[in-house]
Write a structure and sequence with these properties.
By secondary structure, the chain is α+β, with helices and mostly antiparallel strands. It is built from eight helices and six strands; from the N terminus they run H-H-H-E-E-H-E-E-H-E-E-H-H-H. It has helices at residues 2-19, 29-45, 50-58, 125-131, 150-155, 190-197, 203-208, 218-225; strands at residues 61-86, 98-122, 136-137, 144-146, 166-174, 185-188.
Length: 228
């Protein structure tokens, strides 16, 4: 089952999207950045996600998926475009965004469709380093847990020690219930990076080398900078 999920994720997602296209996947890079800002802004304003503010203030990085589209009938899949930003461990300043694609596939009793807004808060250096690889499987290359929401968020510890590399927050609409990113695959989109910054820059250069800057991403950058 795990081998199928890893090997067939992208293929299954592409088939699903031929049947039910996701507008977000065809959206330009600037649209993804703007939607990412709106996603973070919306979740930060939601009292059910009160713990998200505290985690972002101490995060090593964040992955934002404005629209993760899920569909399936027996064989299911998810796909979405994402941005990732990192915080400088010395200055505390956030980088500008690099682009990623997210996909997963599964087999089981499932029917329906859903759109999810997803924020993955990266809390450890190991989690951040995993995100800089050519491909990361969430839950295998970096541990993940659902971020506390509602009453659990208010009772959550403020300790600087974290049991997981990544905490996932999201909202979902449709026939599927709950947020699960275990087994999802994230792949850097270097073509999108090149398109957005006008030069061939890698994800690592954007996140750690201060090698790229696009003023059109200032809105997202300023929002994260304001979370202290």
């Amino acid at each position: 089952m795990m081998r199928f999920t890893q090997g067939m994720a992208v293929l299954v997602v592409l088939v699903l999207l031929q049947i039910h296209p996701d507008p977000a996947l065809a959206e330009g890079e600037q649209g993804v950045v703007e939607d990412a800002r709106a996603t973070v802004d919306e979740l930060l304003a939601d009292p059910d996600f009160s713990n998200l503010h505290g985690l972002l203030a101490r995060a090593r990085g964040v992955v934002i998926v404005p629209q993760l589209y899920k569909a399936g009938f027996i064989i299911g899949g998810e796909a979405g475009r994402a941005v990732i930003l990192a915080r400088d461990p010395n200055s505390g300043a956030w980088s500008h965004p690099a682009f990623m694609d997210m996909a997963s596939a599964s087999i089981g009793l499932q029917i329906g469709a859903a759109e999810t807004q997803l924020v993955l808060v990266i809390m450890t250096d190991a989690g951040m380093e995993a995100m800089l690889s050519d491909k990361i499987e969430v839950g295998a290359d970096a541990s993940v847990a659902a971020g506390p929401i509602g009453a659990a968020a208010k009772a959550a510890t403020t300790s600087t020690e974290f049991n997981e590399d990544i905490y996932a927050y999201g909202t979902s609409q449709g026939l599927f219930a709950g947020i699960s990113v275990e087994g999802a695959i994230l792949i850097p989109d270097e073509d999108a990076n090149h398109s957005y910054y006008g030069e061939p820059v890698t994800t690592r250069e954007i996140l750690q080398g201060d090698e790229a800057w696009n003023p059109k991403a200032d809105g997202l950058w300023e929002l994260l900078e304001s979370v202290i």
